[in-house]
Amino acid sequence: MNKRKIIGLVLVSISILLSLVNVFSVKITGAVVGINIASSLLTIITFVFFFGGLLFLSSLEKKLAALAIGAGVVVGGIGYKIHSDRDNQYIEDTKIISSWKTEKGKFERTYRWDETLDVMEEKYKIPKGILKGLAMRESYGDPLRLNEGKDGGAGLFMFQPGTAIEMGLKVYGSSKKSNADYKHGAELRKLIAKNKNDYKKMAQIDERFDVEKSADAAARYLKKQYNRYHPKNENSNKDKESSWNKALSAYNQGFAARNPLKTKHVQTVREYQRFYNKRDKRD
Q1: Of 166, 142, 148, nearest to 224 (Cα)?
Q2: For the chain, does the N or the C end have fewer beta carbons within 10 angstroms?
Q3: Which domains are delineated in the chain?
Q4: C-alpha to C-alpha distance for 255 and 266, rounded to whole angstroms
C-alpha cells in the first residue's frame, strides 16, 4: 500500500471516530432551534476529513470509503434525532425519533408526553386527541421549541408571553405581549443557547417549557375558548364539534374564524388528532 493510500485511510478513519464522538456528545431537543454549536462544528470537521481521505484513495479503497460515508451520513444526521438528557425525568435517553417534519416524527415526539396529555384532556373534558394534535401542530412535540417566525412564541403549545401570563405561567423577561414580540424571541434564543438546551433549567426559568404546566395552561385556555363559543342550549355532537373547531381557531388567532374547518390550523390539528388517536395505546 503506497503512502497516498495510507493517508487516505487515516483521514477516513479519523472521520469515523469524529462521527462516533459526535453521537455520544450531542445533546439537543430534536428541534432546529438551539442546536449545539460544538456538535455542528464537529460534523463539519468530520466531513472535511472524510472527503480529504476520499481524494487520497484509489477505487479499491473507495469501497471502504463508501461504508464510511454511510456511517458518516447516519451519524451526522442522527444528531437531529437523538434526544439525550440523563438528568431529565421527562425525556427518554437516546430516543430515536423520525424526521421532525413528518407526521410520524411529530407523533413520536408528542407521544413522550402521552400520559400528561391524557390527564389534561380528561381533567378538562376535552375530546381525545385534540390537545395532542394541538401539540403536534404548534411545536412538533418539542417542549423547547421556539416559533419559527421568531415572534416570541415558545414551548410545547407555543404560548406568547402575554397569554402565558394570563394563564398563570411564569415567563422569562419583561414582555407581556400576546402578539408578536421579536425582541423577546431573540432573548429566548440566547437563553436556550446559554443553557445548552437543558430542559430542567429552561422549565424552571420559563414555565412555557414545562410540559405539565404548559399542558395544563393550554387545556384551560382551549376549554375557555370552547365555553366562549359553545351555545348553552345546544349539546348535540355536531354542535360540540363545531364549538371545538371554533375553540381551536381562537387558540390560534385570538378569535374564531367564520368557517374554522376551512382554515389550515384547524384542518391540521384535526388531521393530527386522527393520526394520533389511531396510534394511541390508550383505550
Answers
A1: 166
A2: C
A3: 3-80 (no CATH), 98-279 (1.10.530.10)
A4: 13
> What's the predicted TM-score (pTM) here?
0.68
Q: What is the dihedral of CA 116, 118, 121, 126, to 10 degrees?
A: 150
Q: What is the pLDDT of residues 215-230, one digit of tens each?
A: 999 999 999 999 999 9
| Cell 355536531 found at | 238
Helices 114-123 & 103-111 angle (0-180, nearest 10) = 80
Cα–Cα distance list, 61 to 8, 19, 53, 200 (Å): 9, 19, 10, 47
Q: Residue for cell digits 385556555? A: 221
Cell triple for 173 = 423577561
Q: Are 145 and 109 in contact (CB under 8 A)?
A: no
| Runs of H (alpha helix) within the chain | 3-25, 37-56, 62-78, 103-111, 114-123, 130-139, 161-166, 182-194, 199-205, 211-229, 237-253, 264-279
